[in-house]
Amino acid sequence: MTPLADRRPVLFALGVAAFVIAFTTDERVFGLVTDGQIMTRTAYAMSALGEIGIARGHSVDIARPAGDAVTRYGMGPSLVRVPLTALAGPFENAFGLGSSQTLFVLEQILLVLLAAGAAGLLARAVGGGPKGTRRACLAAAISSPLWAYAGSDWSEPLQAACVGGAFACAALAGRPDARREGPLAAGAGALAAFALLSKSVFVVLPPLVLAVVVLEAPRGRRVARALAFLAGAAPFAALWLAFEIVRFGRPFASYAGEPFSHAPLDGLWRLTVGPNKGLFLYFPLALLGVWGLVRLARARRVLGLALAGFAAFLLLTTAAWWSWDGVSGWGPRLLVPLVPLLAATAAVAAPGRPAAAFTVLFGLGVAVNALGVLQPDGPTTWYYMVLPQKPLTEAETRAYAPYAVLRAAGETPRLGQWFDVANHAELSPIKVTAWLLARRLAGGDVLAALKTPPWRTDRPGLEMAVPPEQAIPPSALVFLTSPFRWPHLGMSLTRRADQPDTVLAFIDCLYDQALRAQDMRRADRAIEFSEELYRRVPSPQTVTALAEAYRLAGKRETFLDFVHSLPPAQRSAPDFGMVLALAARDSGNETLAREILGQVLRAGARPEYARLASLPLAEWPATLREAQLPKAREAAKEPRR
User: Fold this and answer.
1) What is the spatial distance between Cα 150 and Cα 110, in angstroms, rounded to a whole number?
2) What 3-state class would DSSP assign to 100?
3) Mean of pLDDT values over 596-602
4) Cα 541 to Cα 501: distance, rounded to the nearest angstrom
5) Taking the alpha carbons of 367, 27, 446, 282 in that order, is the dihedral positive or negative?
């Protein structure tokens, strides 16, 4: 009998990849980075309320007149997370706090496997045979940066699945022996349009895929294939346009103010062979993939040119963008959607001796990307916060997005730490990640070890400006200092209460909607979400949210009963004290209000509260949120796109 690996090469390879990924993925860090948080919060707004609004307070949100905000990112990632956010609450009721991390990461793993499957199908469509199909699947899944994204909340796995799937469907439809060419053409259109829905820069993808679908068809079948493609693409393209207009008023407006200001040639070498974000460093098989693209263009000209054209477009636009490195994310994050395409062309680059080259490059890719899996990139990115901020001239500030530049009255503008890291080879994420992993494996006082970083601190711009415990928030520092535990899918289901090293993505969504309700002066809704929050996680933060909700609703007796019922540990937060001060103001007791404010300020509260001391009570803000967000936000407080 024919071995299973030859009869079902895609399923066989995906089974192997699924096993490896499931037993190496750290699901505790899902929800650690702002971009992913915004996407998940938007998904929860849709599943819980049928709305798309989120709370204000992000450096990249789009504020709305109603008081809330919307995400500026593509809606595709949020749409695919809607079912998970709907299931997360009941799942945590059954399996405990934080257990829904398993659900969120399971979806990411499935998307990585879909991207790998698309690579295998594309390889088969261009004559790869069973061996080439298996190679392509495994190359994309565990020898590329995609592996490291299985545990993150970035949208790159979805993007890669859509890009790879669209070209795979188009290539399969173009084979002389193609069956069901109509459904394949429709699938190509749907996936290409969903890629656009996920990220507007993919506007070039549908025309390129359509060219493959139509031009590779016999003349008598071109119209039928084009109509099938358009039928598949139309619903998602229309949805993309509707979301663009509803949120921004017009298409392609969400990244306004972010220039293509980076020198393209500099970006090209850094994105290909550079030590920090070079694609060939993180995905060595891409070298073979480029060769395969050239050979494919000779055998199937339209498909080869379409793949090369898309790759060139994404590479050139990324190289010229001000944030060419993607800031956070393992490897050249913005080029990850190319992985399925290059994995497929690498797998069929040539028979014979190059098979040895494939094996060597595959092994190198596994070794490099295993670092980003075992020591996830999110906490590593936070470690760079110990660096100094780079001074800028006013002319230099125009090369960056406004949120990347930190400004204080009368001081020189400075660039947030994350936005300069990729320009220093000494700060290579591969080097730093390997060092951090080694420190955690060695055990002992990891925090003390973090104070002596693996780069030369005697060089300008590389000094340790702030100790790790002051530069990194506790929610991220715990992942850098906690003992190493072998990651695997389902580890959140067995987490003990004394293990704080996990993100609570679902709780974050609840909290976001509680704050959004405050922003919109929806006291009834604020109470609903805040009571649910406090039931699940009684803490100073959730106590503050619920007390503020009762105050906004004018439920004075309920407010007082709740405050008096709290243990001292839950009443210690300065933000909670500010709620008490506002409540005293509401009752007309100026003496008590100012006394409480003084206690809050003596506790070292945020500067936004200090300005209230000199204001008459009548000019105090109506809500805690208005007290917290009057000043320009500090743009580099979270790693983002």
Assistant:
1) 8
2) coil
3) 92
4) 18
5) positive
**178 pLDDT higher than 80:** no
| Dihedrals phi, psi of 484, to nearest 5 degrees | -70, 130
Judged by DSSP in three states, 326 sits in: coil
Residue appearing with tokens 């199937």: 300
Angle, CA of 9, 15 and 20, to the nearest 5°: 130
Average pLDDT taken over every residue of the chain: 92
Distance of CA 246 to the CA centre of its chain: 23
Which DSSP string do the residues of 12-60 spell out, in sequence order?
A: HHHHHHHHHHHTT--GGGTT-SHHHHHHHHHHHHHHHHS---B-S--TT
Confidence at residue 176, expressed as pLDDT on a 0 to 100 scale: 73
- Which residue, 491, 498, 584, is CA-closest to 29? 491
pTM of the full predicted structure?
Answer: 0.94
Q: What are phi and psi of 510, to 5 degrees?
A: -60, -45
Q: Which helix (H) or strand (E) holds 95?
A: helix 76-95
* 554 phi-psi bin (left φ>0, alpha ψ -120 to 50, beta other): left
Model confidence band, residue 290 (pLDDT cutoffs 50, 70, 90): very high
pLDDT over 80 at 532, yes or no:
yes
Mean pLDDT, residues 370-380 taken together: 95
CB half-sphere exposure, 235, CA atoms < 13 A: 8
> CA 156, 162, 164, 165 torsion: positive or negative?
positive
For residue 198, what pLDDT band results from cuts at 50, 70 and 90? very high
Domain boundaries, given as residue ranges, for the chain: 7-374, 377-485, 535-628
- Which residue, among 583, 573, 566, has the nearest Cα to 544 in the 3D structure? 573
Instruction: Please report where in the chains the tokens 């477009």 appear, as a residue.
Output: 313
Nearest Cα neighbor of 420 from 463, 453, 467, 452 is: 463
What's the CA gap between 183 and 180, in Å, rounded?
A: 6
Task: State the Cα torsion 500-156-346-296 to the nearest 10°.
Answer: 170
